[in-house]
Automatic annotation (TrEMBL):
<dbReference type="InterPro" id="IPR029016">
    <property type="entry name" value="GAF-like_dom_sf"/>
</dbReference>
<dbReference type="InterPro" id="IPR051330">
    <property type="entry name" value="Phosphatase_reg/MetRdx"/>
</dbReference>
<dbReference type="InterPro" id="IPR000614">
    <property type="entry name" value="FRMsr_CS"/>
</dbReference>
<dbReference type="Pfam" id="PF01590">
    <property type="entry name" value="GAF"/>
</dbReference>
<protein>
    <submittedName>
        <fullName>GAF domain-containing protein</fullName>
    </submittedName>
</protein>
<dbReference type="GO" id="GO:0033745">
    <property type="term" value="F:L-methionine-(R)-S-oxide reductase activity"/>
</dbReference>
<comment type="similarity">
    <text>Belongs to the free Met sulfoxide reductase family.</text>
</comment>
<dbReference type="GO" id="GO:0005829">
    <property type="term" value="C:cytosol"/>
</dbReference>
<feature type="domain" description="GAF">
    <location>
        <begin position="39"/>
        <end position="152"/>
    </location>
</feature>
<dbReference type="InterPro" id="IPR003018">
    <property type="entry name" value="GAF"/>
</dbReference>
Length: 160
């Protein structure tokens, strides 16, 4: 596991993850292959996750994509739950306590906090990247910035 707060020689944990992700996705542009690699990479390298994966925009409805973790709900309407809010607003949703989030969809009862990053390429909403943690308030502003950066690397490396 990488200590995401480690700061040595100007490299934070997310600097290292960004370099590793660039290398991992280099030379391949297939969406499913890169999405599967990306969520497996996050799930193995980011501490305290119990779910990491994609919901994809299918005619203004989110449909489950590649993921790591427990089986999950398949379809989520825009505006519903944390993922639906990220899709509807195109704003990252960083939720310290999912039980306090109106309409939160509990796929895994172990989840206590969540970060959902909308994936927008050339003005088109491709879907969302969803990370769940059993720890309350697992994701800080530092994580939001870092994971938004990783999402941009994924989008730039992948044909959507
Ligand atoms: N909790 C999410 C649903 C997806 S699962 O966490 C994998 C939500 O409220 O949108």
């Amino acid at each position: 596991m990488i200590d995401l707060n480690a700061a040595g020689a100007g490299h934070s944990g997310y600097d290292l993850l960004a370099a590793q992700l660039q290398a991992l996705l280099a030379g391949e542009r297939d969406f499913i292959a890169n999405a599967a690699q990306f969520c497996a990479f996050l799930y193995s390298q980011v501490d305290d996750l119990n779910w990491a994966g994609f919901y994809l925009n299918r005619n203004e409805e989110l449909v489950l994509g590649p993921f790591q973790g427990q089986v999950a709900c398949v379809r989520i309407a825009f505006g519903r739950g944390v993922c639906g809010a990220a899709a509807a607003t195109r704003q990252t949703q960083r939720v310290e306590d999912v039980h306090a989030f109106p309409g939160h969809i509990a796929c895994d009862s172990a989840s206590n906090s969540e970060l959902v990053v909308p994936l927008v390429k050339d003005g088109v909403l491709i879907g969302v990247l969803d990370l769940d943690s059993p720890k309350l308030a697992r994701f800080g502003e530092h994580d939001q910035v870092g994971l938004e950066r990783l999402a941009q690397i994924f989008l730039a490396s992948t044909d959507c």
